[in-house]
Specification:
- The complex is a heterodimer.
- Chain A is mostly beta strands.
- Chain A contains no helices and eleven strands.
- By secondary structure, chain B is mainly beta.
- The chains are: A mainly beta, B mainly beta.
- At the A-B interface, strand 4, strand 5, strand 9 and strand 10 of A face strand 6 of B.
Amino acid sequence: DTEVTQTPKHLVMGMTNKKSLKCEQHMGHRAMYWYKQKAKKPPELMFVYSYEKLSINESVPSRFSPECPNSSLLNLHLHALQPEDSALYLCASSQGGRVNTEAFFGQGTRLTVV
Amino acid sequence: AQSVTQPDIHITVSEGASLELRCNYSYGATPYLFWYVQSPGQGLQLLLKYFSGDTLVQGIKGFEAEFKRSQSSFNLRKPSVHWSDAAEYFCAVGPMEYGNKLVFGAGTILRVKS
């Protein structure tokens, strides 16, 4: 099983809402990632969790709050977002540790902030 | 700092024709290189990767890429393009050990004409 599963696939939320994006993998990977991809742009890294600890935070606004409850799950909590936060949010995972391997991506959550 | 350049924003080829997508990288150490493909609104699928060894690597869907250290290039090729290959292609660089980060190029949109 080389799948990263993201839910929901689509999300529309108001600027005062609180919502969460979920990501799950069962490959035994110990590194998980959140990327943001605007239209016609490459993915940009937001956060990296390595062994359930936040290891990279690319200066993302505090209205995005990541959480890694265990090695298989990664959440992204959203609060008070702006319309410019509308994008495709991609989750990925890789083996982690000293092993250099590829990253596997989920299908993404298409977020629209109204 | 590491960076990736994909000089072609769009490429159009006829079905059955050969394809080459260009990628140049800047990286201070041994590069770990990847090609991903993305269909509209979807996640990223790994086509192939280069870590070390043979500089010509084979991937899925009939794609191959050649690593040329002297030219800092990792170009993607396919001898005969199919209509289903129409998508956006991203070259990326970076070690993934210890949950490190990928740096993506801007992407090349491939159009296939029948």
